Amino acid sequence: MITVPAGAPYAKLMGLGVYRPSRIVPNSEIVGAIDSSDEWIQQRSGIRQRRWATEDETLQMMTTEASRRALEDAGVDAAQIDCVIVATVSHMMQTPAVATLVAHDLGTEQAAAFDVSAACAGFCHAVAMANDMVRSGSARHVLAIGAERLSEITDPTDRGSAFIFADGAGAVVVGPSETPGIGPVVWGSDGAQYDLIRSREDWRDVIASDEPRMPHLVMQGNAVFRWASFAMAKVAQQALDLAGVSAEDLDVFVPHQANNRITDAMARSMKLPAKVRIARDIADQGNTSAASIPLALERMVAEGEASSGDLALFVAFGAGLAYAAQVVVVP
Ligand SMILES: CC(C)(COP(=O)(O)OP(=O)(O)OC[C@H]1O[C@@H](n2cnc3c(N)ncnc32)[C@H](O)[C@@H]1OP(=O)(O)O)[C@@H](O)C(=O)NCCC(=O)NCCS
C-alpha cells in the first residue's frame, strides 16, 4: 500500500519581500510616443509613474532579491524551502524555468522549482498551490513569487498599453500553521476571451517576419475593463463566502493593480465598508501583472495601512482570461 505523508493542519503567509526597480518613469517621459497626456493617463488609469528595470535588474535578479527579503521577513532559511514557484509571463527563455535559477541563487537544497503562466492572476495561483502543498505534506515551506519585466515586452508606441505595464517582483513564504492563514481559492479561466490580452504574435511569426521584433503585449483595454469590473466582484464575493467571512470582516482589499477605476468598480459592487483600506500601488508602480499584489500589499504594510494579523482579500485577473481570489491573513 502507498504511504501518504501527513501535511500541516493549515498554512499561512510567513513573510513578504519585494523588489522595486530603481528607475522611476513619470508619465511625462512616455506620453510623446503615444500622443497622450499625464492628465489623461492619471484620469483613466490612476497611474502617475511606473518603475522600469535597468539592464542589471534582470527578472532573475529581481525575483531572487524579493525572495531573499521574504525569507528574512519569515525567519526561514533558504535550505528549508522545498519548492519555488515563480508566476511570470516575462521570462525570455522558453525553458528551463526562471524558478530553477532563483532556487539555485538562493541556496535552496535542490528545491522543486517551476514557473506558472497565469498572467496577472499568477501570484494568487502560486499562493493557492503553495497552500495545498503545505497542507498535503508535499512541501513544508514554499516560496510563491510574482515577478515581471514587462517593459521588455511593451510596445512604447502602443497607445492602449504603453502607459500601463511595468516591472517588479514580490514574494511570500508559505509554511505550516496551527490556524487557517489562507482561505480557499476561487479560480478559473475563459479561453473564449483569449484574444483580449495576449502577445501580438508567436515566435514562428517573429522569425518569418522581414523585420523581427519582440512579441509585445496587446490588449483590448475597454473589453478587459468591462469584464474585470463586473465579473471579478462576483469572484471576490465567492472567495469571501468560501472563507466564511464577510466584507465587514476585512481589514484590507488588495486587488490586482490593473486600473484604479476597476478597483473602484469592484469595491462598489462588493459594497466594501469604508473602513476597509484599499491598495493603490498602481499610482507609483504601474501594472506589474503577477507581481502587483505582493508589491501592493508591501506598500500598505510599509505605510502602516496593513499590519500583521489583518484579514486581506486578494483578487487577480488578466490574460487567459485567468483569474483567482482568496482571503489571507497578512504576515
Ligand atoms: C486602457 C484603458 C485605460 C483605456 O481607457 P478607456 O476608457 O477604456 O479608453 P478607450 O479605449 O475606450 O478610449 C477612449 C478614448 O481615449 C482615446 N485614447 C486611447 N488611448 C489613449 C491614450 N493613451 N492617451 C490618450 N487618449 C487615448 C481613444 O482614442 C478614445 O478616444 P475617442 O473617444 O475620441 O474615440 C482602460 O480600458 C483599461 O484600463 N482597461 C483595462 C486594462 C487592464 O486592466 N489591463 C490589464 C489587465 S491585467
TrEMBL record:
Report the sequence similarity comment from the record.
Belongs to the thiolase-like superfamily. FabH family.
Provide the Beta-ketoacyl-[acyl-carrier-protein] synthase III C-terminal domain boundaries. Answer: 240-328
- Top enzyme class, one word, equals transferase
Task: Provide an example Pfam family for this protein.
Answer: ACP_syn_III_C
User: In this entry, which stretches build a coiled coil?
Assistant: none
Respond yes or no to whether keyword Cytoplasm is given for this record: yes
Q: What is the lineage of its organism?
A: Bacteria, Bacillati, Actinomycetota, Actinomycetes, Propionibacteriales
What is its pathway? Answer: Lipid metabolism; fatty acid biosynthesis
Please give the CDD domains that the UniProt record associates with this protein.
KAS_III
**Entry protein name:** Beta-ketoacyl-[acyl-carrier-protein] synthase III
**Oligomeric form and interacting partners:** Homodimer.
Q: Which cellular compartments is it found in?
A: Cytoplasm
Q: Which organism is it from?
A: Nocardioides lentus
Supply the SUPFAM superfamilies for this chain: Thiolase-like
Question: What is the reaction catalyzed?
Answer: malonyl-[ACP] + acetyl-CoA + H(+) = 3-oxobutanoyl-[ACP] + CO2 + CoA
Q: Enumerate the UniProt keywords alphabetically.
A: Acyltransferase, Cytoplasm, Fatty acid biosynthesis, Fatty acid metabolism, Lipid biosynthesis, Lipid metabolism, Multifunctional enzyme, Transferase
